[in-house]
């Protein structure tokens, strides 16, 4: 059994991580930390975990965490980077679900996140945890930077075409929609029911923090600079991301369906739907799957890719478990075989 600690278990990502860990056959949950809820039974705050998680929230005690084999950080940006180096020195592996180790350039991190990086020396070592790209590196990693939710949906949608040479990389468009849980479990006017219900809006158009992460990932795959327009939107639903992706294709004869099916044939959590399909966010609710469909716009060289994920699962906690399984040589799908919820 892998002895696991979770730092920051009170947010939406945290409770989703605990839900999945509680049912994982190879995990022993040792600690769930929260400074504000220390001493409170986890199941009192999250009644869905009653009978599954019997721990109390505790202070983030370095010695207790150092006794774990793996520590997940489900904390706000800027927390994991202050504790990770000491955990790694103690022989503990780390998966950070925030953004502390996603960007390789510390100056870029500081520009987008408004703080200097506490351990820039670890940025090069950190492995970006998108298994469909970095599975071999994840298997050998001590430190994994779990991808963001928008970046996961966008990169998986664009990837087969980025690996093909016949596209125009200067004008990629990612038009993305997210449920309100993506904003986190906090009191904020903009995510109140009365503010978001029966409404729809774009945000972060001048620049969203996921933009440099997406661009970095796309350029890593393509080996070239890309021109990317990324516009996120807030939709009146709790879970889900829908990414509609556009690009120009130079080869009018390319069989797009076969290209996507071949690329993801052996990927357990990417599902390429039949030609002509339109994936729905509800088809991945609660599941660690990305469902894709690829279309060619009529009388045009424009390709349209549709990509849907659950932002809390494949976009966060589920992908973190997938990375854990790879890091410890387990069945990659262990604890992640749940079927999406309908309705």
From TrEMBL:
Amino-acid biosynthesis found in the keyword field: yes
EC number, as in UniProt: 1.2.1.38
Class of this enzyme: oxidoreductase
Catalytic activity reported: N-acetyl-L-glutamate 5-semialdehyde + phosphate + NADP(+) = N-acetyl-L-glutamyl 5-phosphate + NADPH + H(+)
Annotated Gene Ontology cellular component terms: cytoplasm
Pfam families xrefs: Semialdhyde_dh, Semialdhyde_dhC_1
Location, primary (coarse class): cytoplasm
UniProt-listed NCBIfam families: argC (TIGR01850)
Name by which UniProt lists this protein: N-acetyl-gamma-glutamyl-phosphate reductase
Annotated source species: Thiogranum longum
Taxonomic lineage of the native organism: Bacteria, Pseudomonadati, Pseudomonadota, Gammaproteobacteria, Chromatiales
Protein's gene: argC
């Amino acid at each position: 059994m892998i002895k696991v600690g979770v730092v920051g278990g009170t947010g939406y990502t945290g409770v989703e991580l605990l839900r999945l860990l509680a049912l994982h056959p190879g995990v022993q949950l040792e600690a769930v930390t929260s400074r504000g809820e220390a001493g409170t039974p986890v199941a009192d705050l999250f009644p869905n975990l009653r009978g599954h998680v019997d721990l109390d929230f505790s202070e983030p005690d370095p010695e207790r965490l150092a006794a774990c084999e793996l520590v997940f950080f489900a904390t706000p940006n800027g927390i994991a980077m202050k504790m990770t180096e000491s955990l790694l020195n103690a022989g503990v592996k780390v998966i950070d679900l925030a953004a502390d180790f996603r960007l390789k350039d510390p100056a870029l991190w500081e520009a987008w996140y408004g703080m200097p990086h506490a351990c820039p020396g670890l940025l090069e070592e950190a492995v970006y945890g998108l298994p469909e790209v970095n599975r071999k590196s994840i298997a050998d990693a001590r430190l994994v930077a779990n991808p963001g939710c928008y970046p996961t949906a966008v990169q998986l949608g664009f990837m087969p075409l980025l690996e093909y040479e016949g596209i125009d990389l200067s004008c990629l468009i990612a038009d993305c929609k997210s449920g309100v849980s993506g904003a986190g479990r906090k009191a904020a006017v903009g995510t109140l029911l009365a503010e978001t219900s029966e409404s729809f809006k774009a945000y972060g158009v001048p620049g969203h923090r996921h933009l440099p992460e997406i661009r970095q990932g796309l350029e890593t795959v393509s080996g070239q600079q890309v021109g990317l327009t990324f516009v996120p939107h807030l939709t009146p639903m709790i879970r889900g991301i829908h990414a509609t992706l556009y690009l120009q294709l130079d080869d009018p004869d390319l069989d797009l369906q076969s290209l996507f099916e071949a690329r993801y044939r052996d990927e357990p959590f990417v599902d390429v739907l039949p030609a002509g399909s339109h994936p729905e966010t509800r088809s991945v609710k609660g599941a660690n799957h990305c469902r894709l469909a690829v279309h060619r716009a009529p009388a045009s060289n424009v390709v349209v890719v549709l990509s849907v994920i659950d932002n809390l699962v494949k976009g966060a906690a589920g992908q973190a478990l997938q990375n854990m399984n790879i890091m410890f040589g387990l069945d990659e799908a262990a604890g992640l075989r749940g079927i999406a919820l309908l309705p």
